[in-house]
Automatic annotation (TrEMBL):
PANTHER family: PHOSPHO-N-ACETYLMURAMOYL-PENTAPEPTIDE-TRANSFERASE, UNDECAPRENYL-PHOSPHATE ALPHA-N-ACETYLGLUCOSAMINYL 1-PHOSPHATE TRANSFERASE. Keywords: Cell membrane, Membrane, Transferase, Transmembrane, Transmembrane helix. This is UDP-GlcNAc:undecaprenyl-phosphate GlcNAc-1-phosphate transferase. InterPro entries: Glycosyl_transferase_4, PNAcMuramoyl-5peptid_Trfase_CS. The keyword Secreted does not apply. It comes from Arthrobacter ginsengisoli. The chain crosses the membrane at residues 43-68, 77-94, 100-121, 133-159, 165-184, 196-216, 228-251, 263-282, 313-334, 341-359. The lineage of its organism: Bacteria, Bacillati, Actinomycetota, Actinomycetes, Micrococcales.
Length: 375
């Protein structure tokens, strides 16, 4: 049933994105080309509307479908998340068309996050070893939830700089998240095995799959801030749901580290976006600029600067996401000592692959041969 919801989201997203392309091109709803942009011709940024359509329609179908409709029984959380998603898409579209000031955009992000925190899902547990810390204060719980959602939205927004990058990262990371949540619930002794986190990630992956063909290099449409922030909101909401299940015993089978699996996996999935966000804040603050000011210093820009092509930089980021996300997934299935050793080896190999163009250019004898040498 989850796969059916994923397919529904993909079909609707693909079709709706086609419609958004037509409207954006027909009405010439293009943002000015900025110095940091990687494209030279105007492209519509209304793709987030297609992703949102896929997400919203799939949720509505799920609410009336066998098995997954149990998630909606006496539970307003899915509708709170959908309401927050609608708010952030509206804010994102306004920013894509009008280029809002950073503080206005931040207010909009906070409003969407608060909608989710008040009417959707809420952080009630902070994972600690050996025992998780339970949050008793509603105000603290709402503030932490909103802060986490805003951070995740900005992380995904920052990584959205190359054609297909943010959508592909969301598909890979969301798939790992989906498989983990699904496996845990299918192997648990439960009367009701339906799960909101599993549904959210399934629908998110489907919506991004439907959008990606339109966004693959060279992109015919961009997801814009509306799409990137929507992905961040959904991913954060799914992570909050799974974190709240720590004390339920669902993760007790997770080989040696049961209390941190639900929070570790979302951070593994979001490692690259969060790393890019953190580096950007440090970089801009050190230069005396606002952390929200734009520049051309993101991770994907650095890959282009050392010699990667547009497509190869995107594929490399995909591979990093696979290593981190599925490495986190493996922790829920296999012994953590083995998984950590394999993950370390994989990351070492990926680090070498990532640095190879730079090392080849710098190392004597490894650079491109001159015409005289070739003769």
């Amino acid at each position: 049933m989850y796969l059916l919801m994923m397919l529904s989201a993909a079909v609707v997203s693909y079709t709706a994105t086609w419609g958004a392309r037509y409207v954006g091109n027909r009405m010439e709803l293009f943002s000015p080309i900025r110095s940091r942009d990687m494209h030279s011709t105007p492209v519509s940024r209304l793709g987030g509307l297609g992703i949102f359509a896929g997400f919203a329609v799939a949720l509505l179908i799920a609410s009336q479908s066998f098995f997954v409709k149990d998630i909606f029984r006496n539970n307003d959380a899915p509708w709170g998340i959908l309401a927050g998603a609608a708010v952030i898409v509206a804010v994102g579209v306004a920013d894509d068309l009008l280029d809002l000031r950073w503080w206005i955009k931040l207010i909009g992000q906070s409003a969407a996050a608060l909608v989710v925190a008040v009417w959707g899902v809420r952080m009630t547990i902070i994972p600690f070893i050996p025992e998780p810390y339970v949050i008793d204060s509603d105000a603290v719980s709402i503030a932490l939830t909103a802060g986490l959602i805003v951070t995740t939205m900005n992380a995904f927004n920052f990584i959205d700089g190359l054609d297909g990058l943010a959508a592909g990262v969301a598909i890979i990371g969301g798939t790992a998240f989906f498989l983990t949540a699904y496996w845990v619930h299918r192997t648990a002794i439960l009367l009701d095995r339906s799960d909101l986190a599993t549904l959210l990630t399934a629908v998110l992956v489907g919506a991004c799959i439907g959008f990606l063909p339109h966004n693959w290099f060279p992109a015919k449409i961009f997801m814009g801030d509306s799409g990137a922030m929507l992905i961040g909101l959904i991913m954060a909401s799914a992570g909050i749901v799974s974190t709240g299940q720590i004390t339920s015993g669902l993760y007790d089978r997770a080989n040696g580290i049961p209390t941190i699996i639900p929070i570790l996996l979302p951070f593994a999935v979001l490692f690259l976006p969060l790393l890019d966000l953190g580096l950007a804040v440090v970089r801009r603050t050190a230069l005396g600029r606002s952390p929200w000011s734009a520049d051309r210093g993101h991770l994907h820009h650095k890959l282009l600067d050392i010699g990667y092509s547009h497509r190869s930089a995107v594929i490399l980021m995909y591979l990093w996401t696979c290593v981190l996300a599925f490495g986190g997934l493996a922790l829920a299935v296999f012994q953590w000592q083995v998984v950590m050793a394999v993950n370390l080896a994989a990351m070492t190999v990926m680090a070498g692959v990532t640095a190879w163009p730079y090392l080849r250019h710098k190392a004597p004898g490894l650079g491109p041969r001159s015409s005289a040498e070739e003769e």
